[in-house]
Amino acid sequence: MVKVLSWEGVSEKTVRQILSEAESFMAAQLQVALATDQRAITAASIFSAFSTAVVGAAIAYWAQSEDTPLVTALMVAGVLLTAAAFCCFWAARPINFYFPGNHPASWWNCRTSPLVPALGGEAENYQTRIEHNERCLQANARAFNRGMRLAGAPLHSSLI
């Protein structure tokens, strides 16, 4: 349940400062989201290329020598790299993400109302949107981290 705040007695200057902070925060969230999407796509592309190379090497090696343990290890590494690429692509998928600002039409119903409560309501909307964006960023970070761990698993196991 959303708690509605009382904006009675709050100055317009204070509410505008709150809105400014919210807009700045949302703009920063958008920059972070774009950067993490770029990082995830880059990692996914690299993992896809490595996976293709590893599986290709496994098939080529199998044609020359039927060394089952090595071919199995290469195929497992290829599968893990493919799964890592999928996780990274998942982290960069299109999602619902809120941007700073609002449509002018959102203000039409309250254009004759007192300004401070209207701006306060917009600040409350921004808080809800910021929280939504944070949940999205956290979920995508978990998917990206999972992909990085999967990609590192073949390397890690070969060093043991």
3D structure, described in words:
- This protein has 160 residues and is mainly alpha-helical.
- It has one domain.
- It contains 3 helices and no strands.
- Helix 1 packs antiparallel against helix 2, helix 1 packs parallel to helix 3 and helix 2 packs antiparallel against helix 3.
- The longest helix has 53 residues.
- The termini are far apart.
- The relative contact order is 0.19.
Radius of gyration: 24 Å
Secondary structure tally: strands: 0
Shape: rod-shaped
Please give the count of helices: 3
Helix residue percentage: over 70%
Helix and strand pattern: HHH
Distance between the termini: 51 Å
Q: Structural class per helix/strand content?
A: mainly alpha
Mean pLDDT: 91
How many domain regions?
Answer: 1
Task: Kindly list the characteristics that best describe this protein.
160 residues; mainly alpha
Topology:
Elements: H1 12-64, H2 68-91, H3 115-159
Provide a concise account of the structure shown:
The chain has 160 residues and is mostly helical. 76% of the residues lie in helices and 0% in strands.
